[in-house]
Amino acid sequence: MSFTDKQISALNQPIDKRNVSERWADKRKTLKLAYIESWHVIREANRIFNYDWSSETLKMDLVHADNFCVTYIAKVRVIVNGIVKEGIGAGHGRGERVPAGDKHESAVKEAESDARKRALMQFGDQFGLSLYDKEKNWQKTSPPVNNSVSTVIAPKQAKEQPLNSDEIP
Description:
The protein is an alpha+beta fold. 24% of the residues lie in helices and 27% in strands. It has 3 helices and 5 strands. It has a 3-stranded antiparallel sheet with strand order 3-4-5. Strands 1-2 form a two-stranded antiparallel ribbon. Helix 2 packs across helix 3. It is globular, with a radius of gyration of 17 Å. Mean pLDDT is 84; it is low at 147-169.
């Protein structure tokens, strides 16, 4: 199967900078990482693919555990219109006084979210592909002309309703 012209157009739009979050990559605060939040990636997949996509966790391995931190590695498969993409992600649960179950839950969710985002990123900029550009050209682009393409909506305000095919840019 293939994508519609409107889906291809939506996938080819430059990422809207307002949808990009940043965090410090290290404790000394010398390097910032740009990322897209998992809820936003799922919302964009639902909007662009009209809920006609799937995500499956293929593998989840505990790779480290001590009294302070647990780390999991996940492998996720995403299928859109018969096209299969896979991603691998890591997640960490930390804290001396945090119950073990909470650390494991946090690490598993983070690993799965990271892997899903990496799989979807292979479909284009709306899922963060351009964030891997070392020259950061995504920061130089303007938001899409049609701001409804990537308007940020707080998670509790987001309404998960598919767009009609004529509403997808």
